[in-house]
Queue: 2 jobs
Job 1
Amino acid sequence: MTNLGTGNPTAPRARARAPKARQLTSGAPPALRLVGLVLAAGFAFPAAYLIYRNFSEGADPGGLLISRRTLEPLGRTLRLAVSVSVSALILGTSLAWLTTKTDLAGRRFWRVVLPIPLVFPTFIGAAAFIRTMNPGGIANDLLANVGVERTIEVRGFFGAWFVLTLFTYPYVYLPVAARLAQLPGSIEESARVLGDSAAQAFRRVCLPQMASAMAAGTLLVFLYTVSDFGAVQLMRYDTLTRAIATNQLANPAAALALSLILLVLAGAVVTVERQFSNRQSQSGRTRGNRPVIYRLGRMRWPAFGFVAFAALNSIGAPMVALLDWAYDGIRRATGDGRGLTIDAGDVWVATYKTLQVSVIAAVVAVGAVLPIAYLVGRYKSRSGSVANAIVISTFALPGLLIALSLRFWTIQSDLAFNLLDNTMALLIFAYVVRFGSLAMGVALVAVRSVPMKLHDVSRTLGAGPVRRFFTVDLPIMSSGLLAGAGLVLLSVMKELPISLIVSPIGFSTLATKSFSSFEDAFVAEAGILSVVLVALSFVLSWFLVIRRAEHL
Amino acid sequence: MLYKSSKPAATLSPMQMKRRVLTIATLAALIASACGGGSSLDEAAEAIYSGSCADDNGQTVTVYSGRTEALIKPVLDAFACETGTKVDVRWGDSTELALTINTEGDRTSADVYLSRSPGPVGFLEANGHLGTISDEVLSLVAPNNRSATNTWVGFSGRKRVLVYNIDTVSADELPNSVFELTDPNYKGRVALPATNGSFVDWFTVFRDQYGDDVATQWLNDMVANDATFYPNNRAIVEAASRGEIDMGLVNHYYNYQEAAAAGDDHRAANHDFDDDDIGSLLIITAAAITATSDNVEAAENLLTYMLSEPVQQYFSNETFEYPLAAGVAPADILPPLDLDSSGSGSVSYDDLGGGFEQTTAIIEASGILNQ
């Protein structure tokens, strides 16, 4: 590790190989490479399982790919994923810009609230959405009372696009907001002083600085949409994940082949995104620079209305149904109706377990992707790029497949089985493999935002690599890394297949409990547990935002 | 997070120090501690067994339950209390747990597998993961509600019915047979849960009894009659109650659960087809013992317990399912059922020859999934 950051940006070899790559050095420290390799191997378990099983089951992904039964759902998957990516990119970026760069009314509140849609498990979020918005639903009843008959049914392509956009924009919102928060104000100020309008300054200064965070977030939206089953199934939009689900028992080889197609698709998209992001230049944060805050002026209320409308749809609509279910259930249980199947103790234990695993997994995930981010971001190492692609493309795989793959690998040897079976360690590892991708892109953006000049200066002053990491890199990267941790945290809180299958026996979270209730139409219990889940995420989000706000 | 632009980064103010300590302490507490649960029986379990709990008998049984915690936990709690056998449970979706057992193979910790429908049990049987169950246990239910190869036993039943909105559908419109639903009167009014486990099971039996031509024709006619697709029973019952759709083919029991949860706000009711109609099939929930179980005795005790009078009574009264054993009558609110004549247990899923694969192919080809 001794030569961590020792790269000389003007070293002839580096210049010859990558003339445009300022700040990048010729080779990563061997120890860091080794760590990256080990981590990449850990993240590769699901993909390795998928490839192995395709062979062992004699699956024929090539043949399936050209059949109508595959092409049609695949086409719908792509159409949906592209549409959701575009709309979530626009929504997430504008929300991030409004809440971090303007004097938007109540922006502190919005910053706490806007990440929350991430925490709705899609099966219950989409069902709650339908319950509120569709014909005969709560919102329609309310509107009917004031004389408005609304009959738009949220379903099919439109429904899936709408709901997934509302549930996935935080993948863009969080990284972009983190990036904007640490953007040096000086460049923008210079641009303004030199005569640029606010819009010009945004386009010429902010946008290029945000581009890689936007790309990283949009990639996550794309991959999530590709892997989603809960929302598309309730919206009745027939995608590839449905085909995988229906074939799991009936035709396992087909299900495995279709999953492999998903993985290949994800790998291709990740590679394209890397090409794009590698071309983006970034300047790091310099000290003592407060970000520029724009006055909205006349646009103050329209902007507020836009943010409120987005929050009302993405958080308000599902919450209405969840609260309605919870309220009805409690009213009935305290009256003479059917009692609840859960008590306060159950909710408390589940809340505690949810908090425990999500916090640990978030911390471990950020720690696990950071070395890979260094390999890619600072040393432009090829093995780092491969590791990065493995970490991120895993996100496109259905959660069930990741869960099964880890069960599969644990039973392959006595050692692994005795060491890992039924342990929290395996559960956390599984969460990290599934959601490391969420921290990966953000970590990469964070690593690149550290100015090498600072490094060189501190090295000259005699600081060792570890000291440099803690005193130079970490403070600058912290808001980005926190955003990554937040994404992982909220995602683990709602996770289902891994929490059910890879967990130690007897383990349950708020999400698994609400799933168990909801499956058999115990909507009151599901409502209560989900409301607790949202409340918990609100507290955590508040914690993250307030911490981050310290240095704004 | 610890960086403040106005200060040198390496120095922490007392406030920051305090917060850092607090953060680390919180993390440490989260990592270090673990939680235990109580051991006394709750109200629902007491309906099954109200005596005092037996001492630990040294036996343990591990259950992978595709039946949900809300309904089955009281049964397992009562069993643990009454017998002194320790019960460990992994809750989950029936299909996902079947895939888990298939993945874990010989190393699965599951002794008992509980499924919402016969399909996943058939999958495990076909892959050689199920052991045989003794005749004493099997004989507790009628022959058509247990496996022909002694590998699984039904423990409760859910009848296929038509759920309908009571405000938009009049009684004289209700059909006697699923075959009537292809009639123009029902155009655009019927929902099918075409990818749902119990529908797939039902359609597989339909194919077995009427042949592929008739079954496929019926499904294609339904599609031509603008039947709509919903992903599961619960979504259909909920949509029927809201009036989003008029009617749909579901398991009987969801409507009772929704009604119990929502009271008068719930605007849907069940309609039974004729008793001998394929639309009135009883889909059983099934229990099996894994081939590699080391706790067969405890596992069989659990199965016997689930087929005992108090538990069957519980299924009837609390979960609104059809009891299958111990001479327990269905709850008063359920329409009566002749247990010997209905039931999917008489169908061997193996004999259907790749039954599910073919069923899935027919369903996908029908175009119902895009309706």
Note: Residues 355 and 361 of chain B are 10 Å apart (CA to CA).
Job 2
Amino acid sequence: MAEPRRVAVTGLGVACAIGTDVESFRTSLFAGRGGIARLESLDTSEMKVGIGGEVDPEFVPAGLKRLRRRPTDRAVDLGIVTAAQALEDAGLIDGATPYEPQPVAVILGTAVGAAESNTTLQQRFAERGVRGLRPTSVPRVMDNAISGGISIHFRLTGANFVVISACTSATNAMGTAYRMVRHGYADTVLTGGADGFFDPFYYGVWNNLGVMSKNPDPARACRPFDAGRDGCVLGEGAGMLVFEPWERARGRGARIRGEILGYGESSDASHITSPSAGGQAVAMRAALASAGVEPADLGAVNAHGTATLANDVCESGSIRAVLGDAAEEAPVSANKSYFGHTLGASGAIESIAALLGIEQGRLPSNLNLENPDPECRVRLVGGVPEPLERPLVMKNSFGFGGSNGVLVLGPGG
Amino acid sequence: MDADGTADVLVRLRDVLRDSAVEEHDWDAVEAETPIESLGFDSLTILDVLYDVEEEFGIALDPKQVVKTRTVGEIITLLQQNGA
């Protein structure tokens, strides 16, 4: 078997409530500027909760216009426009069409897929029965519409598929992409995740699940690891990364923005929604072993940090169990306080935040962490950015279904 | 409006084509001579046009006839033959 290859990150693209490109995202993150607000795109008057992290409404229309595309579905459109950023950043495309075919794989995460199209279709079916279903409904609503649409638009001829594992989706996708590049199954992979679900059906089912914060002040609602937290806040968005072998990136003179050092995964095999510290710890240990690093090598942990009562206690317990005393030297960041829980995109957007932190040697503050929960016995980044003492970050993602995915991220060169 | 209503049908058909399309175009520049293929439609997505035509005009066109059309004007002719 061929020697495993180092995996470089050579392209980044991001859109969420605090930025619609890497630089605006970075600026907001290190300025402590959150983006959670009352929802503008959705009537929530009959719901208990009406806040979230929305992407600037100008972003998708402007991006589609540049790509000469009509709108199709919110998640697909967010994915395609953000993919263009990452592919351009990596130097794989230059402006809009025509694109030359190139053997790039597209391995993406999504939790709910083409939510907008699904909701539209359900409404039409309820109103008109089978006659309400337009002929192209199947390609519009299939969950791989995102990876397929990107592959077709940019003429990327490697494998394309989506990984669906709720809030772990993007991290599982990135882990799969990492292995494909590391072990020679692909030379270049566009990976990450996208989700857009601010529609009455999908926001409604989360509303009724009862895990969202009911804090009346949107800016203060998402409070990971704070004693006053009362639930998560949803956000829409997409994060895209280009992975390729380190030596190949060097050879073509690409800017290497970071490295994927390792990946681990596991299942709790216990409960469909309640997390298990034991299952999480298995994934973290596997990731560290895969990267060949010790807990004391880590400079920080980028937490899943949903701000639900259950997650944050469980996750801090699993971090403490895996890192031991080294947990005191690896401050925990929780980026969802800025842009909400972007579900199947969260692992990608937060990995980009971690890579930018490594690039800058700093960790962004944790918004709304005013009174750390004494049950969360980890060292948390406080209200101002902190220096990152060692340039290795462990990125956690955990999802309903008991799916755990963990990446170890390092500096570029 | 022209005597046979072709211009009016074209305006309505442009809206249908735009709403069914994946690719963006200068829709105001779409004329009767415009090839349908140049707007990015294929044998699958043209079925969406059929669907939206029925929504807009209340006319069910024969898919076998529609897939034979090559230009926007040929769809207009089919619509007019069916009462538009």
Note: The mean pLDDT of chain A is 96.
